[in-house]
Structure formats: structure tokens, C-alpha cells
């Protein structure tokens, strides 16, 4: 039986930065392109009124370049506003009144996790949580213990099936294309295992620094910011077994099984780095050891992947901005042609950003009399005709009750178990120069004398 669509959308933190940059543009697209026709209620404690919220929404769309007067009229007509303190029962009484006849609201908590408890209890005591769903933003905790506390808070009121943990990375077209490439092509499955794959590398490089968010980054670092969530999710799509059917629960079950097979990280197989100049950022401690770069080796203890190293590298102030996966295959068991064992291995290269590129590295014969080879790359560039943003896709799915692109509680906890050894008493962060590929010690993470596959520069933005 398909899930019922929510009949009202409530977003707490309506005056905040996330609402301005992401939620208003996504709602405008859903209203005008997706036919979302339900009350949209902004919640905040800013002393605003409805007209000020509408002005804020207009400014958001203007900045995003998506403001069109006729389209904005539709969104504006559906907006409502409730102002008040989240610890005051009267605020939630007003919300219940604003919901009117809505019987299946969805509540988006675009607020700090420290406020979840007050809001969740307020929703429950006012009756606003009855038959409702809730969307929560990452980070889902700071470590395993805090993630478990956060889940307990949510589960006091909402069943797991009504909780939607939103990670915008899973809504990106390129990440969805990675999942499709894995399971829609039969030629991959025979070789997608330890018998043919030598190693898998995932690089998420950013050419910029912390962009004035030093205080925020001091509380996160690269491991919490992108490894525990984004990059482990990418690994799960690369390494999971085919789901038993197309239902969303089948995919989630396979991802959970894969996360549970990830071995907790060994600090001896991790290098942490910090770009020079980070400590001069506003809000950063002068002796900070927060990592802006991390390189690590991950092990997955399944029959498919036993002894295959998975390498993850992520950092700021690197040479370019790009996210790339390289799956390197083993050499043939015996060389048939002279010099064949000195040529590069076959590989698959999957570029996830800034553009979607799928390529295969192969060997072909050189022109001439001798049986000598040379490497070539067969490239397919994918240009999506859809301009749907991750937030538009994910909010739309949540309203419809589709959980397939959202993270479940057990998966979140399994991911924290993988990185937890790095979060308590970590090794010092090694300095590296902006514009380089991190500290030289990162090369030592790769075993067997191999090297990192640096993404090819396409567009570069100096740090």
C-alpha cells in the first residue's frame, strides 16, 4: 500500500539561513512544478509576521535566480506564519489552529539538534504530532552516543517510519546515477568483487576553505562534515549487494548490511591534515587540531570485498573542486604480450561533480608491427535535462512518504561506529599548504606502492 501524502508542511527555523538558501527555492519549485497544494507554515521566534515571511521568501528566490511574479504568487498564497517561543505551549496551540483541518502534517526541523527535544514534546502535547512525519537535518549527532540520544528523543513521539533524516547529498542526480549504473548494467556484476577489483578510491576535493564558518568547522572537522555521512554513503552504493526487489526497504536493508560490515577505522590507517591559515580564520582556536583534510583506508568484511582496500580522501583548499570514484581492476593473471604487465591497470572512473562522467580505462594496440599497447579512456558524459535540486527531490519524497533516499536510525548508528575511533583522542593534524593534495603522509595510506588518483583539473578556484 502506498503511503498517504502529507496535507500540511511546517518548517521550524523559517527565518534561518537554511530556509533562505534551500527550503524556499525547493518549496517554490514543488508548488509550481510539482503541484504541491497544501498549507505551508513557517515557524520562528523572531517577532515576524506573515508579510515579513513572504518578503523573506521573495528575497530568497531573487538571490537564487528563480523569482517569477506569477509563480511566486502561488507560493505566497500557501504561506502561513506562526511566531513564538518553542518552549511555550501557546506557540504550539497556535500551530494546531493554523493547521486547521490538516490531519497528516509533516514538520521540518531546520533548527539546531539541541532544540529538538522542546519542539518534539511541544508537537506531541498539542496534538500536532498525531499521524505526522518529521524531517531532521544532518548532522545526526556528533558521535555514536549523541546520535543514540537524538534518536531516543525523536522516538519518544515519532515511529521510525515517520522520521526522515535528510542528507542533501543523497538527493544529487550524480549520486542517484551511481546507484543506477551499479544495478542497471549486467556487465559489472561478474567483475564487481575481490577477484577482479584491486582497490577503490573516493576523493572529495574542495578548492576553497571554510568560507568564514570557522566556528562551525571547529565543531565538525572533515570526518564529521563529509566522511561519516556523504562519503560512507557513496561507499555503500559502490559496495552493497543487489537489493531483493525494487521496494525502498530492500535497498535500505542492503545498505544497512553493508554498513554493519564496515570495520571500525584504525587510527594507524588515517592521516589528518590542516591547511596553513586555518587557525587565522575567525572563530578558530589558535592551537586548533581540527582536521580540514583526511585520508583513510576502510575495510569491508564481506565475501565480496574481503581484502579489497577502500580509500577515502577529503579536504579543503585542495587544487580543484571535484568528487570522483576510481575503481581499479587487477592485472590479468598472466601477461600475453611484452610489456603488458608494465602498463596501467583497467579501471572505472566515476566523476560525481562538477559534472557527471563515467569512463573506463582500457589498453589497445599501438599502430605498428609490434604487439605493444597503450592506455585509452572511453568516456561517457551524462548531461541531465532535469534541474531539480536535491532539496526539491527530498522534500517532495518526504511529503509523499517515500523513505528510499533518507537515512534510517540503524544505518546512522552503524556509520558512527565506523568513525568513532577517530573522534576521541585523535592524532594531531599535520599542516599542509593550500593548493596541494594535503600532507605528504597521505600517500602512505595507499598500500603496495600505489598512488592516489587525483581528479583532472577542470575549473579551479584558488583558496
Spatial ordering of strands, largest sheet: 14-13-12-11-7-10-9-8-15
Cα distance, first to last residue?
A: 51 Å
- Range of strand content: 15-25%
Taken in chain order, the helices and strands follow as EHEHHEHEHEHEHEHHHEEEEEEEHHE
Structural description of this entry:
- Residues 459-463 have low confidence and may be disordered.
- The protein has twelve helices and 15 strands.
- The longest helix is centred in the middle third of the chain and has 19 residues, at 221-239.
- β13 and β14 form a beta hairpin.
- The N and C termini lie far apart (51 Å).
- It has two domains: 8-137, 3-Layer(aba) Sandwich (Rossmann fold); 170-386 and 408-445, Dihydrodipicolinate Reductase, domain 2, CATH 3.30.360.
- The chain has a nine-stranded mixed sheet with strand order 14-13-12-11-7-10-9-8-15, covered by helices on one side.
- It is of the alpha/beta class.
- It has helices at residues 17-33, 50-64, 69-78, 89-99, 116-126, 144-155, 173-184, 214-218, 221-239, 248-261, 390-400, 409-423, and strands at residues 8-12, 40-44, 79-83, 105-109, 133-137, 163-166, 197-205, 270-275, 293-298, 310-315, 322-329, 347-353, 356-365, 373-382, 430-432.
